Amino acid sequence: MATYTPSQVAAKTGFSLDTLRYYERIGLLGDIARTSGGRRTYDDDDLGWLGMVQCLRDTGMPIADMLRFAELCRNGDDTIPERIALLEQHDATVQEKIAHLNTQQQRISNKIQWYRDVTRADDVPSKVADSAPV
Amino acid sequence: MATYTPSQVAAKTGFSLDTLRYYERIGLLGDIARTSGGRRTYDDDDLGWLGMVQCLRDTGMPIADMLRFAELCRNGDDTIPERIALLEQHDATVQEKIAHLNTQQQRISNKIQWYRDVTRADDVPSKVADSAPV
DNA sequence: TTGCCACCTGGAGTGCGCTCCAGGTCAAGG
DNA sequence: CCTTGACCTGGAGCGCACTCCAGGTGGCAA
């Protein structure tokens, strides 16, 4: 099975070496295999898990929740329903976040358009005056 | 013109009193009018600006950038092109964020589905084994 | 006039998620 | 062998965006 040095993993995942060590220290990664000399050797399972971590992190899951998920994963197949529940909960949160982002982005677009109208008219015409303020 | 007490503004906007004072202190709000006794009295313009701040904050703009935008707004109509540029830049960032969130959410959905398939099969059948790992 | 509560100020503290550092170890190339 | 650079550990430090606090003031209601 393929193994990877810390710097290879950093390159592949975008996590820094410090972050990788940090995640391991707090228990987000489980113990990583070592060489006889004590150097970490990551394998494909580790990379897979790191991908999951990255996905959850990038969607805004706090580390505490990821730790909970990691713990469930470590505790065998009986926890799968709980894992599903956790992910569904998170999925709903992400859904809301996306929706909120979309509405806020619309506001930004409106504002940009408002500025464009203002500059084209060289002043604030009534047609445009009731747009977003300031 | 309608005016509002700090707690009314907090209720309307969702910002805490401390956050309102903090934003004022760092220059994100400009000086808020005061009563003779020194109490803040916010007006509708302030609320409008706070709405903008909220929109930018919720879409992930760092305070430093909002300060820059606030400064442009204070410096008259000549800065409107710069404001547009800043907002367009931000808009693009938000766009990317939404796109990334969507792809990551897809991964989460896949993972949930994968867990469902696993539990239904009571083990990992080959049909499902090449899905997302761990 | 006296409570009382909302509000004021400046400054210190908090939580999160890393990031940096000092001082040491391991292993491959020359 | 010796150098060199990637890696090790434990712990301290950082940047952001607030949040809390102590000690004091304003103004309305009873």
UniProtKB/TrEMBL annotation, chains A, B:
Keywords: DNA-binding. Residues 3-72 form the HTH merR-type domain. InterPro entries: DNA-bd_dom_put_sf, MerR-type_HTH_dom, MerR_fam. The keyword DNA-binding applies. GO terms for molecular function: DNA binding; DNA-binding transcription factor activity. It comes from the Bacteria. This is MerR family transcriptional regulator.
